Sequence to fold (149 residues):
Amino acid sequence: MLYRKESIIIHRKLPEVFNRAQDIASSLEDVSAYKKVEMLKASGENISHRSTIRIFGIPVSYISETVIKQNESIDHRQIKGPLPGLRTTWMFDAFDAIEEDTRVTISHQLDLKIPVIGRWLECIVYTLFIKPLAENFLVNMKQNMEVAK
Fold:
């Protein structure tokens, strides 16, 4: 099992940052690789959605279940697609004493359950695909939110 995380400080209040991130369809606009998000089902804090992303120009779709805890976390779990079981959790916390800045942390947990090569493959998938997308998302979200001030 692989567990990694990336963080960034966004110079906006936590509720503003969280509201942007919880709108899954528009927040994924911060990553140019995402091409489409289709909401399948929403019930309270729980959302199911199909996302399409381009990897090396090839469209790849997956279905995720998401649980939203207001102003705390957004937890995505891929249930169907190339990485079933991939868990992506976004955590939000006020970063300074006057709560003008927000730290956003995206953690990834991946367990491919493939004998012998699973751990090695997890590291490759994370390094080549997951980490660059997460970093790109955080940087773009920061830029888009801070410019909108």
User: Anything to note?
Assistant: The mean pLDDT is 90. The beta strands are 2-10, 34-43, 46-55, 58-69, 73-80, 87-94, 102-110.
